[in-house]
Amino acid sequence: MKHTKKILGTMLLTAAAVVATSCVDDSKLLFSVDKPASIADMEYLNAYDALKTYVNSSANPDFKLGIALAANDYIAGGLVTRLANSNFHDMTAGNAMKYASCVADDGSMNFGTVENFVSAAKAGGLTIYGHTLGWHAQQNNKYLNGLLKDKEMDVDPDEKVDVEDYAVDYSTSGYTFWNEVNAEVKETTTIGKNDAEGCLEIKTSVAAAQNHYVQYHIADNLPTVIGKEYKLRIMIKGSAAGSLNFGVGPWSGRAEGAFSFDTEWKEYDFTFTAVADGGHVMTQSGLFAGTIQIKYVKIFHSEAPTVEVEQEVNVQTYKDGPFPFYARGCEPPVINSCLHFVPTGDWAQFFVFPGGDNPLEEGNYVIYLDLTASKDASGVQLTMQNGWGGDAQSITVAVPIKEGNHKVRLNFPDVAGGNYDVILKPQTADATLDLRSVTVCKVVKMNSIPLTPEEKKDTLTWAMNNWVEGMMKATGGYVTAWDVVNEAISGGGDDGEGFYTLQSAKNVSAEDAKNNFYWQDYLGNEDYVRIVVAAARKYYAENGGVNPLKLFVNDYNLESDWDDNKKVKSLVHWIEKWEADGVTKIDGIGTQMHVSCYANAVTQKSKEDHVEKMFQILAESGKLVKITELDMGYIDENGTSVKTENMTEAQHKAMSDYYKFIVKKYFEIIPAAQQYGITQWCATDSPSNSSWRGGEPVGLWDANYSRKHTYAGFADGLSGK
Fold it and tell me: Is Cell membrane tagged as a keyword (predicted)?
């Protein structure tokens, strides 16, 4: 039988309590009726109290029952607020406390919603669990990637060159821009193109009372970017000496200035910093009586002149052993990490870099050989070729050989592109050669250079500290528990010790790499978490934090049965590594638990077994343990997720049993001193258009805020039934 919910016993939550109401009174009917089974089956829920009443606070003093919600829904003070206040001790904001919700494209931070959320929580008597300080998702990628952009090369300011960004030349272009002339001088003023002289011409025979009575755009749709410095250049002359006021930018704000012109054609420059993106050049000349002519308007920015820079693209090194590549008559072994060539008097050549490992784009290249020779020698060559057919490109250069160790720099211009084999040809040279490495660099012309890894780390350490400090100021010491780092473990790979690697742009899909920002790729696997933890503790203490601060590392799939809980084992392992510096302290582990209840009994048993295993591993870690994002869907015998509208009564009750199992096992397995809380991620079933488990029965209440069977299972788990 399908379970069709009736709002006959709705448990809508008031500010004080849960009120059971009924819109049917059988005693008033003149004939007897049987109560529908679906209604009778739900009536037992009326006997349940608010969820938080089932928490034994004396046995679990640090345990908090939490709910995730939209911060603005709680701030609004309506039904969501009353539900949270009545049933829970603690709240998690779904998105409001994440990086992308607070940090704008220019790096400015707005914590208004966070501050209002904190104020509302204080008024409602609830605590807040902070979610989240460090994460790779929901970051402001535009801002963060902008921090890592190439830096302009350091040159003498006098050597900088002007680069044109915009130009309108009235000797070749018509005039189509906005202009406005006040009625006072409309009959005595014209604005338009003078085709004979190839310029824009403004004629005013009578001066106006105000300068802005004659105003006109002389350029529009500018490509300027807020905060960047530019130069405005105008070629102008007048029938007499005068002044032209102007502003550069959109209507919302402009950089303003003025040019004093005379009767000769002259260029005038005005350096400004854009106060907004784009816009126009607005000019005003109502106070001038006569003719103003403008030949062109240009916008420039200054930058370092272009220079040639060598960018490393491929490197070949060697491991001790036999010759590692395809043999071409000579097979020098690798000794002490060097290809060791001993001359025999015969003509010799051998691969030093296979083409499959040396893909090159079209361009100019240099190759560096880290080489040691027993004596000076001549006749040695290096060939780079992208194939063996008649149409393959082959470039051969002489290699100067000097006694001792030295790096040889060799030019390879006009490379066509492809996979290039690199072949060293001692030919008949009589020197013993030890080649340690081959480094291939592309020669590019540029006026900026990439930041070094150290510079990137330093920049992002500052950015992380700035973000954490801003959040701690906004929360003012009220939020005492945080997801300090979220979802760090990849769930794949091998870190060299048999555990999963960390999340990285290198081990995710191209789409994820584009949409996310992986701080750990720049800060380092160990230092990433250490930097966030240190920032959290520092800025919490500096901004009103007096109660103990609890920092959790939060992750999903820790209950995984497909890898026998390898992810939670890996997380515990990584926490040990992060804390190995003797300074970093992680207080707890958050397990998200976005689970599903399975109709297949064998599958469901496996899921339950690995939930227990996860709790056992977490208990053995000695860390505080919090279920941070618990919700549940249902998977039928065919492996299909069942939507709320298609759920049966039996399926709802199976979910209730699984909730009870999870909550009860948490209290049974996790020692009381480590029990920090359980947060239900979804109060109500997910709407069909939701991006999170859309249309699934994930709530303890239905969409109308009526209690579901899962409410009973959750409550029974809390009470230990």
Answer: no
The DSSP code for 628 is E
The reply to whether 670 falls in a domain is: yes
Residue 259 and residue 318 share a domain = no
* Residue at a domain's end among 416, 431, 449: 449
Nearest by Cα to 440 from 533, 373, 361, 380: 361
Q: Tokens for 703?
A: 């969409």
Find which of 11-15, 35-39, 186-190 is predicted with most confidence, using mean pLDDT. Answer: 186-190
Q: Tell me, letter by letter, the H, E, C secondary structure of 546-578.
A: CCCCEEEEEECCCCCCCCCCHHHHHHHHHHHHH
Q: Which residue has the tokens 């209950």?
A: 559
In 27-157, at which residue ranges do the beta strands (DSSP E only) sit? 64-69, 90-93, 127-130, 151-152
Stated length of the chain: 721
- Please report whether residue 667 resides in a domain: yes
**Per-residue pLDDT reduced to its tens digit, 273-289:** 999 999 999 999 999 99
For residues 292 and 166, state if they share a domain. Answer: yes
For residue 450, what pLDDT is reported? 84
The answer to whether position 399 is within a domain reads yes
Same domain, 215 and 328: no
- Within 8 A by CB and 6+ apart from 589, the residues are 552, 553, 554, 555, 558, 568, 571, 572, 575, 618, 621, 623, 624, 625, 626
Q: Is the pLDDT of residue 4 over 60?
A: no
Q: How far is CA 229 from CA 163, 272, 279, 341, in A?
A: 12, 6, 15, 57
- Residues 354 and 436 placed together within one structural domain of the fold: yes
- What pLDDT score does 308 carry? 81
Q: Which alpha helices (DSSP H) does 103-169 contain, by range?
A: 112-124, 141-147
Tell me the mean pLDDT in the region 682-706.
95
Q: What beta strand segments (E) does 324-391 contain?
A: 334-335, 338-341, 348-353, 359-360, 363-373, 381-385
Do 166 and 194 have their domain in common?
Answer: yes
Q: Which residue has the higher pLDDT, 162 or 567?
A: 567
Cα–Cα distances in angstroms (integers) from residue 516 to residues 139, 492, 520, in the given order: 7, 18, 12
Q: Are residues 328 and 347 in the same domain?
A: yes
The confidence score (pLDDT) of residue 157 equals 64
- Tell me: do 410 and 281 sit in the same domain: no
The CB density around residue 305, as the number of other CB atoms within 10 Å, is 11
For residue 603, give every residue at least 6 positions away whose Cβ sits within 8 Å of its Cβ, in sequence order, or none: 635
CB 414 within 8 A of CB 364: yes
In contact, 305 and 159? CB cutoff 8 Å: yes
What is the C-alpha to C-alpha distance for residues 31 and 223, in angstroms, rounded to an integer?
80
Decide if 683 is inside a domain. Answer: yes
199 and 274, same domain (yes or no):
yes
**Tokens (6 digits) for 190:** 């014209």
pLDDT for 23 equals 28
How many domains is the chain partitioned into structurally?
3
Residue 91 tokens read as: 């709240």
> In angstroms, rounded to a whole number, what is the distance separating the alpha carbons of residues 120 and 281?
47
- Written as one string, the DSSP assignment of 596-612 is EEESSHHHHHHHHHHHH
CA 215-217-218 angle, to 5 degrees, is 120
Q: Is residue 36 helix, strand or coil?
A: coil
Instruction: Share the mean pLDDT of the chain.
Output: 92
Verdict on whether the full-model pTM lies above 0.70: no
Residue 330 is part of a domain; what is its CATH number? 2.60.120.260
The domain in which residue 345 lies consists of 308-449
Which of residues 251, 269, 303 is at a domain's end? 303
Amino acid at 150: D
- What is the tens place of the pLDDT at every residue in 82-130? 999 999 999 999 999 999 999 999 999 999 999 999 999 999 999 999 9
Per DSSP bridges, beta strands 199-204 and 242-249 are: unpaired
Three-class DSSP category at 246: strand
User: Can you give the three-state secondary structure of 487-508, one letter per residue?
Assistant: CCECCCCCCCCCCCCECCCCCC
